[in-house]
Automatic annotation (TrEMBL):
This is PAS domain-containing protein. It comes from Trichocoleus desertorum GB2-A4. InterPro entries: Biofilm_reg_signaling, PAS, PAS-assoc_C, PAS-like_dom_sf, PAS_4, PAS_fold. SMART domains: PAS. It comes from the Bacteria. SUPFAM superfamilies: PYP-like sensor domain (PAS domain). Residues 253-289 form the PAS domain.
Amino acid sequence: MDLETVLEYTSDAVTELDKDWNYTCVNYSAELLLRRKRAELLGHSLWEVFPELLNTPAEAELRRAITGSIAVKFELFLPGLYAWHEVRAVPTEQGLILFSRDISDRIRVLREEAVRAEIRNMLEYAPVPICIMRGQEHRIEIHNRSFQQLIGDRNFEGLTMRNAFRELEAQGFFELLDQVYATGETYEGKELLVRYDRHGTGEMYEGYFNVIYQPLLDTTGQVCGILSLNIEVTKEVLERQRVARIATERDAILQQLIEGVIVTDAEGRITFVNEAASRLHGVAKLDVLPEGYTDTYHLYTVDGKPYPPAELPLSRAALRDEIVTEARWRIRRLDGTEVLVEGNARPIYDEQSRKIAAVLTLRELAAKS
């Protein structure tokens, strides 16, 4: 078998250029690699066929090979073919022989690995727990340090979500991931209760999380994975529940008092009116600010004039931090009856001496119809 036959059927793409850079030999593999018929190449200049190589490192290497009579090896990207080639150029008496092969897949893998490493570096120290999953089975590709802290510093990369968190079965999270992958629509969940083995000891942990499942798309626009952000809000939820329990207990106690009781927040907005106060006023409207006390609750001075809102005992306690005792005023109810009441008001402070509320207690002194 002669050399020409060997070159024709070798898997490497082999082309030969004369000293004027014209193609003089093109084997079958080169036709496939360059996506050109032999007739389109033979007799034509390399720079005519691939003008995008001019003024590039590839041109410099080829000229170095032919002028220095040395073999060179380099990689180049051909935009027209959207491909990376590895080229070995060997000088001959007639010009150059080029041995080329497609390395696009290898370059693509290297670039994907570089991108993946860059993504990991960006996410690694992010203060928000982040996990990236790939494929329909939601295989964990990357999770950052903040996420690892939620799982006892274990490493679940490479596992599917169902294998990594078997205890989440029947809690609805796997179904949510399937839904996001199937629809491509982002899911946001607030204060979701999660029961899972946090430290791998078999002991179940209960926590509340704000969760975002963001679909990831490939170059064709198809969903290829999901980015998950998981922000723990357990302390905030438990504290709010504790405060709500205290408020419920407080309300239950205050409802039993014979005296009327009205409570506001730190800005003076009414948040609670017990039954006794409601009966005295004939109204029990919440979310009323100090400027609306007089009109909403029909309050008058002892001599029958509309009570200036800013001078009402509850307003003075809420807005000016005053303690008011044995103040008197009239209430004119919607049915036309009036009652004369006496009351005390004071601001309420927390353990850090911050005002958190104001409270008014009142009782009927006399009634006039």
